[in-house]
Amino acid sequence: MSQSQHATQHNFTSGNVCFVQSYAKINLTLDVLGKRPDGYHELATLMQTIDLYDTICLSRIDEDRVDMVCNVPELSNENNLVIHAAQAIRQKLGLRQGLAIELHKRIPVAAGLGGGSSNAAAVLQALQQWWQLPLSQDDLWQMAADLGSDVPFFLTGGLALCEGRGEKIVPQVANLPEAWRWLLLVKPAIGVSTATVFRQLTASDYSTGSWSRAVQAALQNQQPLFSSDLHNCLERGVLEQYAEVAQARAAVLHAGASNVRLSGSGPSLFSFFPTLTEAALVQHQLQTQGYEVYLTRALTTDGSPIHFFH
């Protein structure tokens, strides 16, 4: 299966309408190596798509414009990345075909789960396939990189090592420990500004990228891993600066999870479980405390199975 099919394997296309699913991600690791001359930070991060998704409906319209509506009202505006993605394709190819976009959000917003970036990548790929456009993979990648640092990852999805500012993607074989069969996501009831979190990094938070490369090697060689190996350079600062995230982390551990890590810049936290029974028990306890909790799993978006090893 070609890369251009990865993120849109669940497309449903019928004449003037195309539906596509747009998956969230977690950062298994996140190394920040330092600040770049362009103002971004140099990263090394292992990202993994998960079975939590938004649904996007694309419809042809006669007018030469792109319209968009979202079930989260504050996202129904011209700044949404799905509009930018559609306009990038229209402008590159000089297309006059109009488009109406309906975005049904299920991925929490500003949560460290890449929802907006995933939406943009899904629109790029859906239009490429649906309209049979003369765009190469390099064309799509360049448009994705221009839209945002995480967008290129979602063109392939699955498990990948992402470097640079996040746009250099090296797909990995989907080997995961059996203890990671189920995944619990907890979203504290606050938003976290990614830019603010990065601004408040100290030199002691930086790393060489060794955490991500060590986990990458362990997964590919099917070697044992511990939750302490899943290092996130942003975690210390987020836990110190946002009491709600620290409280949520404590609540997850108290409910019975043996591991809790921060995804991206947060505030979402994730925990792995070997059985559905254990994951569902912790989910129930957290929900009774009022937490927003999602029981999900790691996913390859090209339809290939994940190999779970002992």
Automatic annotation (TrEMBL):
UniProt-annotated binding residues for ATP: 108-118
Top-level taxonomic group: Bacteria
Pathway field: Isoprenoid biosynthesis; isopentenyl diphosphate biosynthesis via DXP pathway; isopentenyl diphosphate from 1-deoxy-D-xylulose 5-phosphate: step 3/6
MF-aspect GO terms: 4-(cytidine 5'-diphospho)-2-C-methyl-D-erythritol kinase activity; ATP binding
Residues making up the signal peptide according to the UniProt record: none
Domain GHMP kinase N-terminal intervals: 80-158
InterPro entries: GHMP_kinase_C_dom, GHMP_kinase_C_sf, GHMP_kinase_N_dom, IspE, Ribosomal_Su5_D2-typ_SF, Ribsml_uS5_D2-typ_fold_subgr
Domain GHMP kinase C-terminal intervals: 218-291
UniProt-annotated catalytic positions: 25, 150
Swiss-Prot/TrEMBL catalytic activity: 4-CDP-2-C-methyl-D-erythritol + ATP = 4-CDP-2-C-methyl-D-erythritol 2-phosphate + ADP + H(+)
Gene3D superfamilies membership: 3.30.230.10, GHMP kinase, C-terminal domain
Keyword Ribonucleoprotein: no
SUPFAM superfamilies with a match to the protein in the record: GHMP Kinase, C-terminal domain, Ribosomal protein S5 domain 2-like
GO biological process: isopentenyl diphosphate biosynthetic process, methylerythritol 4-phosphate pathway; terpenoid biosynthetic process
Enzyme Commission identifier(s): 2.7.1.148
Keywords recorded for this protein, A-Z: ATP-binding, Isoprene biosynthesis, Kinase, Nucleotide-binding, Transferase
UniProt function note: Catalyzes the phosphorylation of the position 2 hydroxy group of 4-diphosphocytidyl-2C-methyl-D-erythritol.
Family (UniProt): Belongs to the GHMP kinase family. IspE subfamily.
Protein name (record): 4-diphosphocytidyl-2-C-methyl-D-erythritol kinase
